Task: structure prediction
Amino acid sequence: MSFRFSRSPVPSTTIPVETPVRPGRPRSLAADEAIRDATLELLATEGYANLTMSGVAAQAGVSTATLYRRWTSKLDLVIAVLQARAEERPVPDTGSLRGDCRAILRDVVEASQTTNAGPILPGLVGEIGRNPELAEALRTNLIAPRRAAFVQVLERAAARGELRAGLDHELVIDLLIGPLYHRLLMTGAPVDDRAADALARLVIRAIAKEVR
Result:
């Protein structure tokens, strides 16, 4: 019996030719602004549940492809828009506990009085109970970072010797901003600079270190 060996052909080595990557179209700042304004407008008038990517695109005067090149979903879009809005309002650092508390509360007042802000907050709060994904995204990307910045305000005050020892900073934050949001969402009582300043004075009395 004879065996016949066949020689397999050696595969040729090919060197891939790199295709030049063409730069994409530059992102339009005007389109970004239009998309942001449209998202806020529809959040205020339609609510999160009824907001759609196609609706935002139509309101902003852009294509849905433009939206999806930037954000993969409605949730991503809304969170990004709200984050950008929050970044326009940095947490104050006035150099004193009294000044910081007053500035924080006056910022809540100003934000509540801007266009669209009034209807958006109650709408999102109502939606949180029905939409766990939205709730988690808001808490992780917006609420937690903001509260962390407020904690830094209190830590700076403690370092300056202005704060009573042993305070629970998370509870202090609730005490500081909770009443204004309760008015906004529940009672409808005035949310203005007068209320903010009165609340700041009450909170300072409760948390400031006594000067002897």
Observations:
- Residues 180 and 195 are 8 Å apart (CA to CA).
- The radius of gyration is 27 Å.
